[in-house]
Amino acid sequence: MIKRQRTEEGLPVSVNYMLIFEIVVVINSALAFVTVFREKRDIAATWAWMLVLVLLPVVGFIAYAFIGRKLPKGRMFRLQHQVAVQLNERLSQQREQLGTEIMPADKISHSVINMVNMFMETDQAFLARQNRVKIFTDGHDLFHTMMEDIERAHSSIHIEFYTFYNDKIGNEILNLLVKKAAAGVEVRVIYDPWGSMGTWKRFFKPLMDVGGHVEPFLGTRSAVIDFRLNFRDHRKVVTIDGQVGYVGGFNIGDQYLGRKEKFGYWRDTHLRIVGSGVFSLQARFMLDWNATDKDHPFNDRKIDTRYFPLSKVKGNTSLQIVSSGPDSDLQQIKMGYMRLIQTAEKTLWIQTPYLIPDDSVLDSLRIAAMAGIDVRIMIPDKPDHAFVYRATQYYARQLADDGVKIYYYHNGFIHAKTIVVDGRIASVGSANMDYRSFKLNFEINAFIYDEEIARELEGIYEKDMAHSELITPEMFDEQSLYLKFKQTASRLLSPIL
């Protein structure tokens, strides 16, 4: 297209808009190439970002600035020396014991021993024995028990949550923390500013006024200004006096008590741990705190022994607390999930609100189903994030075609992140079955080697099935073309959702 204009001298000039457009496209493509390929990332995420940057020249680069960049090396975790030494000492003790001591739950299963060793090697996750573990699936029961434990605290209360909302339950817990801090108990809180959207630091002022310490994760007071929207502290950790710990999928907010009409009843899974497993939860919190708050760190020369009291509990559960995040390229929890899938001989039952596996996990699930293993995956029947849910539906449809049994949970919203294998071993934690949990979020899970706990989780799964619907390949085929289009389009962006 050529348009003639006149210069100040009155001479005609030609403006070739098509040529200008082509130049802009070439420059934009070149910038997209340099932007994406200057950082090491997997090929799926690379091409997903290339698609966004090329098709959305301005908007795409703005989105990349906020959620596309990798965590800067300068913000990576600096493991505090003394904490790392204590972990290594406990790890060495566990390595020595593994060679001679029989784990009562696994009957010397080589697959379990290999998994334990893998986590020891990749995450310094020592094997915690003889714990007492209680499973919670209802928010009212969980927070009632948790607040009773906080009320009994006499030394320290450490809390780390992705979401800490300024609502009814949030204020109830805050008021209790204020009371304990005023009584001389050490109280520290880490919250994620993105996950706690709408909760400002001033909400915690009453706690800080009586000596409590509260910080947004990694010291980021503004996720927008700091350009770190993509790296979220999705962990849910509570330790009380170094003796009682909590880990799982619940956050602090009224919606987790079923008080939000959008979601209805909130079905999640959380663990209360008493015993040596709390050591790892405490250590994880301390590492996160020292990476977050430089003004009031835990002493890296001598860790107060009150944080790690000698456990005298005689329970039946052996477990490992495993954490992962963008501070490591190992994707430890994803490795654990894959190991669980590969270990399955008869049954593999999964609950996850988001089902967006990468190729390696997807292939592992397909192989398990094709090998005749009873693979079941339970997901919500409603979205909380539109794009993510459509991508979840896409992968559910693909897996159903490969023989995986897909269940839609109808009794509210299922947010549990659980895996149970052969009624022998299990995982409960914060990590979903998706790219974000594997690579971008800071996550934490308990991998449990106890047949009694595994069977209890199976029983819970079966009860949930009574409120669920098996979605067959034929039912997926009957979905409208428009819905399938949205699923496919969302799937193209799945590596960066």
Automatic annotation (TrEMBL):
Compartments where located: Cell membrane
TM annotation in the entry: 12-34, 46-67
Enzyme Commission designation: 2.7.8.-
PROSITE patterns found in the cross-reference section: PLD
Top EC group: transferase
Classification via InterPro entries: Cardiolipin_synth_Firmi, Cardiolipin_synthase, CLS_N, PLD-like_dom, PLipase_D/transphosphatidylase
CDD domains to which the protein is assigned, alphabetical: PLDc_CLS_1, PLDc_CLS_2
Topological type in the membrane: Multi-pass membrane protein
SMART domains, sorted: PLDc (SM00155)
Record key words, sorted: Cell membrane, Lipid biosynthesis, Lipid metabolism, Membrane, Phospholipid biosynthesis, Phospholipid metabolism, Repeat, Transferase, Transmembrane, Transmembrane helix
Reactions listed under catalytic activity: 2 a 1,2-diacyl-sn-glycero-3-phospho-(1'-sn-glycerol) = a cardiolipin + glycerol
NCBIfam families, per database record: bac_cardiolipin
Purpose of the protein: Catalyzes the reversible phosphatidyl group transfer from one phosphatidylglycerol molecule to another to form cardiolipin (CL) (diphosphatidylglycerol) and glycerol.
Protein family per UniProt: Belongs to the phospholipase D family. Cardiolipin synthase subfamily.
Alphabetized HAMAP family for the sequence: Cardiolipin_synth_Cls (MF_01916)
Name by which UniProt lists this protein: Cardiolipin synthase
Taxonomic placement: Bacteria, Bacillati, Bacillota, Bacilli, Lactobacillales
